[in-house]
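Example record

One chain of 300 residues, shown exactly as stored in the release files.
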Amino acid sequence: MALNLDGLMVAQVTPFTPGGREVDLDWLPAHIEYLRDQGVNHILTLGTNGEGPLVGLNERRAVVETVVKQSGMMRVVAGVGCLSLVDTIQAANDALDAGADAIAILPSHYFPDADAAGLVDYFSSIIEAIPPQGRALLYNIPPNTHMDIPDEVVLALLDLFPDQLIGIKDSSGDPARTSRYLEATQDSAFQVLAGADQAHAELYRAGCTGGVSGMANAVPMLVKSILQVHRDTGDGSRIQRQLNELRDLMLQFTRIGALKQLIGLIADLPVPHSRPPNRDLTPDEAEALKEAVGRYLVGA
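Predicted structure tokens for this chain:
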């Protein structure tokens, strides 16, 4: 069964208690309400911005359950990438059991020299282990995994699992790479999602009809405007430049900590903590970030 992921999906952060000791499930509902009010269509939980690889299996299920309970009409996709194939399969089934609409699967990136046949075996092992009605999204993020999911792997998996494999989140940030996915799968219902905040406008021009954004945790309306303006005029580049200016200011600090601080500043929510090796901003850094992004807070 098709699962339409057009529109804006937020790659939601995972909140932790001080020191990253536990997941702060109580923080999630207010943030989800904020995202819903700002027009977010879907949620990706436990992805890169969600520090998914740092979250244990039991914690993952609790996060997915909480997000699904609060999500209302928003679709929920759960990141399930673990280094262990066995753990990834468990995370996938736990997420679907907890009510996720789909799972997002990373390649097992400790072995970046894995060839196409090995990657097909890896992804197939996971998809075969979930229920027949379970749906899966591939997650291509070479800056983090140091490997690219080849077109031939996508096509082989689409041939094997035409009803379960619904698309790919391409976070390469390379419009040419995204275009190759679009061209290779154009005769199917396979969805290619724009997954790089700094390139959404160009990726929509390439043909993506949906996007996944970490910055949307804090400024969802700004991010969604890129897609809306693209649909109206074919060119969201002006708003993309505004987003990139804000993103560049944030990237002067440690990224996850700065994103969480930005949520507190703009969404008027308590600032959630990070889990090591990610860290919270120091008080001085938090004040510097507030000063740097001040003009974006007017009317927010």
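Notes: The chain has one domain: 7-234.
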